[in-house]
Amino acid sequence: MTSTAEQVDRLAAWENRESILYRLLPYVGLAVGMLLTAVAPTPAGFSVLPDPVLAALAAAWIAWFVNLHPAWVKRRKLMGIYYIGLIGLAGLLVLDSPWYAFFAWVGFVHAFVALHGRWRFVGVAATGVLVGTGQSGGLPSSLGHWLLWSVLVLFNAGLAGVVSWFGTVTERQNANRKLLVEELAETNRRLAETMRENEGLHAQLLTQAREAGVTDERQRMAREIHDTLAQGLTGIITQLEAAGQARDRRADWQRHVDTAVALARESLTEARRSVRAVRPEALEAARLPEALAELARRWSTINEVRADVNVTGDAHPLHPEVEVTLLRAAQEALANVARHAEASRVGLTLSYMGDVVTLDVRDDGVGFPVTDVPAVRRADGGYGLTVMRQRVARVGGELAVESEPGGGTAVSASVPALAGGAR
């Protein structure tokens, strides 16, 4: 059993590791920028001073404010001056050599340390401009370059803004949890004075309840982030890569960029709804069969793969959690088809069978050997079937996967047909 003191010590150790990380990252970025500028020079840009001199000034600026005076982090005005100087030096370095975008990226991290409230998002936006300028190869010089620069800036600033927003929410939650831990510790001490004979059992029950709540919330957020941000970012990256390959075809390039922007907006909307624990937008305005049909249509348009949806049985409203589970399962299955299957056709079948509802997703792709432990996290970092199994199990359902190399894949989610109220 972990005591409150041990939890506080672990939190302090974690915060100490974070402190070391944000103190060292700027120097790593400077070193990478100087090395790449030396071995792979870019066309000469705007330069006030030689980049080694600017890099030395930036290193001294960070060392003075961050490393030599760590207590200054609590002085908001002083740290605001520090951040302005950091962004200014990073901007001069990026204008001199786009490789210094590796250093400018540190502005995302230091915005959390040096700035507070809405000023964090201002810092994130400024850093997004610098990083986008570096990624696009310097200041825009043509219409195409301006468009590429705009997409990169919006992407970097938007993604970092979402992460910053999540970070702000998490920071508040951590503060509330820390306060709750302290209050619980005081309550436990008082209870221990009058109930010494039950001290061990009481402390164990409180710890288990707290850890269960934290674990459940983490799992929920992990599933929601996987189903919204992760899938959305994968689609955005795919569309931007396709846009890069279609630079000579104006219509195709614009279509891919427009699709990427639409995916980014949808992902941001779904992420906000996930934080508020609100059901997906697709189920707010339509029933489950219509939501699946719209999902398949949009997925087919983006991935250029035929997707058919069939509904059997008497379709009726289900419990909101059941409908969300089936919709998310369909999203994950289609995302896996797009990433791995190389299929030419996908079929989704929603079957209402009395007290059970089943969603089958079949493709004619390359397939894969089904292992005995399918719930293990994939080596590429994705959760895949783990998230689907967790969601289906939470509503008392089962997930089955059938596949073999060259024989396509079939994913079947069966859940209880719990009735839901009229919309």
UniProtKB/TrEMBL annotation:
Catalytic reaction(s) noted: ATP + protein L-histidine = ADP + protein N-phospho-L-histidine
Cofactor names: [4Fe-4S] cluster
Entry EC number(s): 2.7.13.3
Organism the protein comes from: Micromonospora sonchi
Residue ranges of coiled coil: 177-204
CDD domains: HATPase_UhpB-NarQ-NarX-like
Keywords per UniProt: 4Fe-4S, Coiled coil, Cytoplasm, Iron, Iron-sulfur, Kinase, Membrane, Metal-binding, Transferase, Transmembrane, Transmembrane helix, Two-component regulatory system
UniProt GO MF annotations: 4 iron, 4 sulfur cluster binding; metal ion binding; phosphorelay sensor kinase activity; protein dimerization activity
Top-rank taxon, per record: Bacteria
GO cellular component, one term: membrane
SUPFAM superfamilies per the UniProt record, alphabetical: ATPase domain of HSP90 chaperone/DNA topoisomerase II/histidine kinase
Function: Member of the two-component regulatory system NreB/NreC involved in the control of dissimilatory nitrate/nitrite reduction in response to oxygen. NreB functions as a direct oxygen sensor histidine kinase which is autophosphorylated, in the absence of oxygen, probably at the conserved histidine residue, and transfers its phosphate group probably to a conserved aspartate residue of NreC. NreB/NreC activates the expression of the nitrate (narGHJI) and nitrite (nir) reductase operons, as well as the putative nitrate transporter gene narT.
Oxidoreductase listed as a keyword: no
Transmembrane segments: 20-41, 53-73, 80-102, 146-168
Keyword Transport: no
PROSITE patterns, per database record: HIS_KIN
Location(s) in or outside the cell: Cytoplasm
This protein's name: Oxygen sensor histidine kinase NreB
Domain Histidine kinase, first and last residues per copy: 326-419
InterPro entries in the cross-refs: HATPase_C_sf (IPR036890), HATPase_dom (IPR003594), His_kinase_dom (IPR005467), Sensor_HK_TwoCompSys (IPR050482), Sig_transdc_His_kin-like_C (IPR004358), Sig_transdc_His_kin_sub3_dim/P (IPR011712), Sig_transdc_His_kinase_ChrS (IPR017205)
Primary localization: cytoplasm
Family matches, as Gene3D superfamilies: 1.20.5.1930, Histidine kinase-like ATPase, C-terminal domain
